[in-house]
Amino acid sequence: MQNLQKPSVKPYLITRTLNPENQETPIHFIHKDFVSDKLFYRRNHFSYPNFSFYWLIVDGLVNFSRTFSLQEIQSLPSKTVKTVLECAGNKRGFFKPKVFGEQWQKGALSQGIWKGVLLRTLLGFTGVMETAREVVFEGYDFGERTDSNQVTHFRRSLPIEKALHPDTIIAYEYNGKPIPFKHGFPLRLIVPEWYGMASVKWVKRITVVGHEFKGPFQAVDYVYYPKKESDEGKLPVTTMKINSTIQQPLDRKILNTGDHIISGISWTGNGLVTKVEVSVDGGTNWSPVDFERSPERYVWVRWSYKWEVLEKGEYTIMSRAADSKGQVQPPEAKWNRKGYGFNAIDVIRVKVE
Amino acid sequence: MQNLQKPSVKPYLITRTLNPENQETPIHFIHKDFVSDKLFYRRNHFSYPNFSFYWLIVDGLVNFSRTFSLQEIQSLPSKTVKTVLECAGNKRGFFKPKVFGEQWQKGALSQGIWKGVLLRTLLGFTGVMETAREVVFEGYDFGERTDSNQVTHFRRSLPIEKALHPDTIIAYEYNGKPIPFKHGFPLRLIVPEWYGMASVKWVKRITVVGHEFKGPFQAVDYVYYPKKESDEGKLPVTTMKINSTIQQPLDRKILNTGDHIISGISWTGNGLVTKVEVSVDGGTNWSPVDFERSPERYVWVRWSYKWEVLEKGEYTIMSRAADSKGQVQPPEAKWNRKGYGFNAIDVIRVKVE
Questions:
Q1: Topology (CATH level 3) of domain A14-236
Q2: Do the chains contact at B101 and A252, CB–CB below 8 Å?
């Protein structure tokens, strides 16, 4: 009989906005180490750029400005980096009081394998002057911001040390294939340990500068503002905080009595995840989880905890991760006006009946 | 250059659970009268059924039990019905205090054009005995519930008058094509005005009965329980309540000063939507919206309101609909333990900067 093939049941990206495109990874349904390009979260500040030829310019405080063709870049020694990318606004929707902007839940987060050339290999060709302080990356994407009538490109900088770090690459492949256009084809900067805004897509130009770069995506956005009405105490958003997400069960799920697996992921921008604990009684008692494999730098560790529940009722389940730099997920996230870096202990509630 | 075609930017279903499959329509991005089958919300109680031949049985308190082939059904006079289908749990995620179950936001709602045969045409072939009180519909889908170890089919009943209503159909087409398997192929009961659980998918058997049907999807689920701990005051879930959803702008959006369009949809199971008003000051002042076309029975009306905003600040935007039966969206939804029928005035908050 027609049409009766086994139906495919699959998760989709979760649409936040279409213009620019902002879509979230269905993180609760990702049970692999690496996210397929189709389910990788999409975070854009502007419409997708249009460009039909491609050269990468490297200039500024260098000994010799250079233009690289894609072919040249791909012929240089390559480096592969497995890393989480997490939007600085991941989990923004959970801040209390609520803040404005895309209401990301837990899926502005993905991870995969990026292959490219070390940025310091490229800068080896051009040389870097002694007065160099930062490296500015300009994407092909541009548009207007609500706070200005001028058209601006997406631009971000890295301190020279991070730019020269042996895991900072200009990538041209994702999971073994050319980077999908929506994720930065042909070249994307990949900055492990930092929140995703640092990993500039569609890199057009790399400029070494001798000053502190102050573009709006660096000095206005992607800044922690602890106060609602003033800019007092502001700090730049850089390294990913220690974090964890319970993937299963889902929040507000109704379960049977019996055995259940509580599973999730933990990640950090500070060395290694060293410990993850789960509480099934709202934070009174904590038990260590089982790691699926030994934690590695840059990537999430998948974990699980076997929960036997015999008594009917409502349960508050929490996960709390710690890293090798001594950071631990706090009970409350540090509120900030633009809603970055939410990393409170993850909390869900289930009913057993 | 390869890969530089214009990227497609599209909304996706929002995954709530995969087994059974529950996915939400990206309702904020639906600006058509009819939702494509790909974006129609999916709400299942069990895994998708497997069946490889198809006959529809009509039996019980009838003069002649009958089995209909699909071909027979499609050869009978047809009726086309345009209707909203809304899951009774639509907007469940907004109840306060929160309730358990799928945390639907605003997209357990779709609408389109169903074509089929009137149920009363089929019952005309079998005859209906005078003692008939309800008609029970059994779907091919079955499985275990958390409250029982027995396997049960999805079954729901309609009072005989609703079953014989001249718009209650056994549908075989959606939007001009055979109903997609996930939405009930080959035959789906369509019950306008009632919440979606009444529109049984994969209809296998129709049985006329002389008693009140008490299956678990009728007497346990799809019941309003106003109390948390007791069943006192319970009432069956039937007709859709008057409701509205602001589609644009999105909640927590940051806007410029200037002109903006506030747009949305309103629908009801009670006659016609007669009035929709918008407030941009948190409910102090209300203005009528413009309807895209005259409201029709069963379908949502799309509306818009032009908002000129000159002053920076935070704004609370609300929409409130009323229908021809005198129902008006209340400021607070009527809390009930299983979270059905949320229809409070829709509220979003935006920041103008």
A1: Sulfite Oxidase; Chain A, domain 2 (3.90.420)
A2: yes
Distance CA A181, CA A243 (A): 29
Nearest neighbour of A19 by CB, restricted to B9, B15, B28: B9
| Min distance B10 CA to chain A CA atoms (Å) | 7
Count of A-B CB contacts under 8 Å: 123
Give which of A5, A8, A9, A16 to mutate to test B binding, by max B Cβ within 10 Å: A9
Inter-chain CB proximity A18 and B12 less than 8 Å? no
Chain A's closest residue to B55, CA to CA, is: A1
pLDDT tens for each residue of B114-168: 999 999 999 999 999 999 999 999 999 999 988 888 899 999 999 999 999 999 9
Residues of chain A contacting residue B252, judged by C-beta atoms under 8 Å apart: 98-103
Q: For residue range A146-157, what is the model confidence (pLDDT) as tens digits?
A: 888 889 999 999
Looking at the complex, report in whole angstroms how far the Cα of residue A352 sits from the nearest Cα belonging to chain B.
Answer: 9
Distance from CA of B104 to the nearest CA of A (A): 11
Summarize pLDDT for A169-193 with one digit per residue, the tens: 999 999 999 999 999 999 999 999 9
Q: Which of B1, B29, B103 sits opposite A15 (nearest CB)?
A: B29
pLDDT of residue A4: 54
What average pLDDT does the segment A296-322 reach?
Answer: 98
- Give the tens place of pLDDT for each residue, B195-219: 999 999 999 999 999 999 999 999 9
pLDDT recorded at residue A5: 59
Contact: B252, A98; criterion CB under 8 Å: yes
Q: What is the mean pLDDT of residues B64-91?
A: 98
User: What mean pLDDT do residues B249-260 have?
Assistant: 97
Residues of B in contact with A251 (CB under 8 A): 103
User: 3-state secondary structure string, chain B?
Assistant: CCCCCCCCCCCCCEEEECCCCEEECCHHHCCCCCCCHHHCCEECCCCCCCCCCCEEEEEECCCCCEEEEHHHHHHCCCEEEEEEEECCCCCHHHCCCCCCCCCCCCCCEEEEEEEEEEHHHHHHHHCCCCCCCEEEEEEEEEEECCCCCCEEEEEEEEEHHHHCCCCCEEEEEECCEECCHHHCCCCEEECCCECHHHCCCCEEEEEEECCCCCCHHHHCCCEECCCCCCCCCCEECCECCCEEEEEECCCCCEECCEEEEEEEEEECCCCCEEEEEEECCCCCCCEECEECCCCCCCCCEEEEEEEEECCCEEEEEEEEEEECCCCECCCCCCCCCCCCCCCCCEEEEEEEC
The domain spans of chain A are 14-236, 243-352
ipTM for the predicted complex:
0.93
Distance CA B328, CA B343 (A): 9
Q: Is B7 in contact with A48 (Cβ distance < 8 A)?
A: yes
Among the CATH numbers 2.60.40.650, 2.115.10.20, 3.20.20.70, 1.10.3720.10, which is that of B243-352? 2.60.40.650
pTM of the prediction?
0.95
